[in-house]
Write a structure and sequence with these properties.
With 678 residues, the protein is α/β, with parallel strands linked by helices. It has four domains: 75 residues, Chorismate mutase (Chorismate Mutase Domain, subunit A); 80 residues, 3-Layer(aba) Sandwich (D-Maltodextrin-Binding Protein, domain 2); 108 residues, Alpha-Beta Plaits (2-Layer Sandwich); 243 residues, Aldolase class I (TIM Barrel), CATH 3.20.20. An eight-stranded parallel barrel has the order 18-19-20-21-22-23-24-25, surrounded by seven helices. Helix 14 links the parallel strand 18 and strand 19. Helix 1 crosses helix 3, helix 14 packs parallel to helix 15 and helix 17 packs across helix 18. The protein starts with a helix and ends in a 7-residue tail after the last helix. The chain binds phosphoenolpyruvate (PEP) and manganese (II) ion. The site of manganese (II) ion has 5 residues, from loops.
Length: 678
């Protein structure tokens, strides 16, 4: 092809492009005329000119349609935001209204204007045409409180940096708070050395800067001679401070934006160790956002997988099976639980997608704890395959007999706890005990912790007889306020020491949501007593911990109510829940309660959660404990919990139903529990 042919070809193509562009202009004009017609209609019906849901839906539709033409979603988002904003402006002018563009939003940030959080928030909301007002917070936790307590609608918080890594404090705060992640943003951070007018690098003796900036600019800072680094909570504030001090020997590390805002000079740019220095910010709000279908999105969650070989691998393989792209995995220690780690994960997709819902279902079947922090729009679009179908595991032998699937039973107000959700038994492992497995777990200990001697003697007896968990009440839920109320945290210290001495994990009852955090520091299993089975704030509080929960059946509650109470715990994230039948109220007065043994096979049919039986509180009389315990074992209980006392006649509570240490040993033999190898 000659060069004049080529020229002609290019000219021809260009004229085609001109035609397309003039068509685009004609269409934009046509769109504008429709916008004006809508304005008239809105004016007549007195409707607001901005309908955010419709705007988001519209953009989502355009992204989906554009994907069929292989057009980039980012381009479509930008283009249609501009078009939609222009339409709104046209309508507002036509109606003579001066509504704030998109209503405006109050944003809590750690730091002041000019900080990177501020720049991130400006970018995040600015591109959406949303006006911002700021609430300044001293610490990240204060920024979260501003939102939780309603003084700000959202908070923008840094979560990780490409050079200095995860900002662990923010991760931990996200897990503790009730806020949802509603967006994220990657900001290119350009640290600059700032000084007052006329400062030269040779003048500098002190640099004020944020610890994160110290980490990200460590090479540059190490190159400064005779220079002191002073830590500051906020980059922009350090700039403001040096302006106020007006001293050329003091510099700060902050953004160019901060230099502009506070009238400082940029002495040097590009001082970070890596030229490409990005910080990712998350936007959090009180309510989760609904991501319209078709909009590319991401989900953030936290999980604990348990401490056994392959546990993390098993959880991750669920992502591979669902073909869901895991884009982030960050581990964090769990306070007071050194054997386990928490994993923060980000993956593509949103909770409203059925593929993601299936993935979360599969994960809850596998992990010990799972909390979704939120789904939010993200930039990358990827087509998703259809979800696979998982076959339930068919039980056989004794397993099939003790967990019968009763036909016609569909879950009543619970899902996560149902067999339909998870066909295989949940195994809760605590020390040597494996609740939910074929090995019967024997729990023994006093009704209440009363003294060192009493709890040590009981713990020794439990260990010697083959029990694998030590029980003991420290906070006692007594029917009468005049009865012994327990030794409280002092008792918990004793129980914990006794457990450690004899290598036994401990279970104790927690009575109020305020105590949960403190009790969970020492107790290996948190017990919810019969009187608290429907204390929903308590159930939610234990659901947020990483300790297994032994949930006792309310003395007047149905099994469906028990399963719904368990659902409160599961729903909060904690998947390690065990149910306990402890006797119910009937017209029969020969026993303290009536042990509902049929609860065991009924529960085992309906739920994958382990089932424990407490014959002591059911009987109220030590002579009945052994026969009821043997019956419970025969009918398929995964665990048996029995009260014991070195001197039952001197017990401060429930003496008549407590076994002597010798009787406990006899029972353990009759149950076939192996003695422990000492
Ligand atoms: C207990 O096990 O200590 C107890 C108080 O039991 P319940 O809640 O079943 O009465
Ligand atoms: Mn008791």
């Amino acid at each position: 092809m000659s060069s004049s042919d080529e020229r002609q070809d290019i000219d021809k193509i260009r004229s085609e492009i001109d035609k397309v562009d003039s068509e685009i202009l004609r269409l934009l004009a046509e769109r504008k005329s429709h916008a004006l017609r809508i304005a008239r209609a809105k004016g007549e019906f007195d409707r607001p000119s901005r309908d955010q849901t419709r705007e988001e839906d519209l953009i989502a539709d355009r992204i989906a349609a554009a994907a069929q033409h292989d057009l980039d979603s980012e381009l479509i988002i930008k283009l249609w935001r501009t078009i939609v904003n222009d339409s709104v402006r046209i309508q507002q002018e036509a109606l003579g209204r001066a509504e704030e563009p998109n209503g405006g939003i109050t944003v809590a940030i750690q730091g002041i204007e000019g900080s990177y959080s501020h720049i991130a928030a400006e970018q995040f909301f600015g591109t959406k045409g949303i006006e911002t007002a700021y609430v300044r917070a001293k610490a990240f936790s204060d920024a979260i409180d501003e939102v939780t307590e309603g003084r700000a609608e959202v908070a923008v918080l840094p979560i990780e940096n490409t050079t200095s890594g995860a900002i662990s404090e923010v991760y931990d705060l996200l897990l503790e708070s009730d806020l949802s992640v509603v967006g994220d943003l990657k900001l290119r951070v350009r640290h600059c050395l700032l000084g007052i007018h006329g400062t030269t690098p040779a003048d500098i003796r002190k640099v004020y800067c944020h610890p994160q900036a110290v980490a990200q600019c460590s090479d540059f800072l190490a190159s400064l001679e005779d220079c002191e680094i002073v830590h500051f909570s906020d980059t922009a504030l350090s700039g403001k401070r040096i302006k106020d001090l007006n001293d050329p020997s003091i510099a700060a590390i902050a953004s160019e934006e901060a230099a502009r805002l506070y009238g400082l000079e940029v002495i040097k740019t590009g001082i970070a160790n890596r030229a490409e220095n990005y910080t990712r910010f998350v936007v959090v709000a009180r309510e989760p956002v609904e991501v319209p279908e078709g909009v590319p999105s991401k989900t953030s969650a936290v999980m604990a997988v348990g401490n056994r070989p392959g546990a993390l691998m098993d959880a991750l393989s669920i992502f591979r099976e669902g073909d869901i792209n895991l884009v982030k995995l960050e581990s964090r220690p769990i306070p007071h639980n050194p054997k386990e780690e928490l994993f923060y994960i980000d993956f593509e997709g949103n909770v409203a997608d059925h593929e993601v819902a299936d993935l979360l279902d599969a994960l809850t079947r596998q992990v010990r704890f799972l909390k979704v922090l939120g789904s939010y729009p993200s930039r990358d679009l990827r087509p998703r395959p259809d979800a696979d179908t998982r076959k339930p595991i068919e039980p056989s032998g004794r397993e099939k007999l003790v967990s019968p699937v009763v036909s016609g039973q569909s879950p009543q107000g619970y899902r996560l706890g149902s067999r339909g959700h998870k066909p295989a038994n949940t195994i809760v492992e605590v020390g040597e005990a494996r609740f939910g497995s074929d090995e019967l777990v024997l729990i023994g200990g006093p009704c209440a912790v009363e003294s060192w001697d009493q709890v040590i003697a009981s713990a020794r007896a439990v260990r010697d007889s083959g029990g694998t968990v030590l029980r003991g009440g420290c906070f006692k839920p007594r029917t009468s306020p005049y009865s012994f109320q327990g030794l409280g945290f002092e008792g918990l210290d004793m129980l914990s020491e006794a457990g450690k001495t004899f290598g036994l994990p401990i279970v104790t009852e927690v009575l109020s949501p305020e105590d949960v955090e403190e009790v969970a520091k020492k107790a290996d299993i948190l017990q919810i007593g019969t009187r608290n089975m429907q204390n929903f704030s308590l159930l939610s509080a234990v659901g947020r911990t990483h300790r297994p929960v032994l949930l006792k059946r309310g003395m007047s509650s149905s099994l469906d109510e028990l399963l719904q109470a368990a659902e409160y715990i599961l729903h909060e994230g904690n998947q390690q829940v065990m149910l306990c039948e402890r006797g119910i109220r009937t017209f029969e007065t020969s026993t303290r309660n009536t042990l509902d043994l049929s609860a065991v096979p009924v529960l085992r049919g309906r739920t994958h959660l382990p089932v424990v039986v407490d014959p002591s509180h059911a009987a109220g009389n030590r002579d009945l404990v052994a026969p009821l315990a043997l019956a419970a074992e025969a009918i398929g209980a995964h665990g048996i919990m029995v009260e014991i006392h070195p001197k039952p006649e001197e017990a401060l509570s429930d003496g008549p139903q407590s076994l002597t240490l010798e009787q406990f040993d006899e029972l353990a033999r009759a149950l076939g529990v192996p003695r422990r190898q000492l």
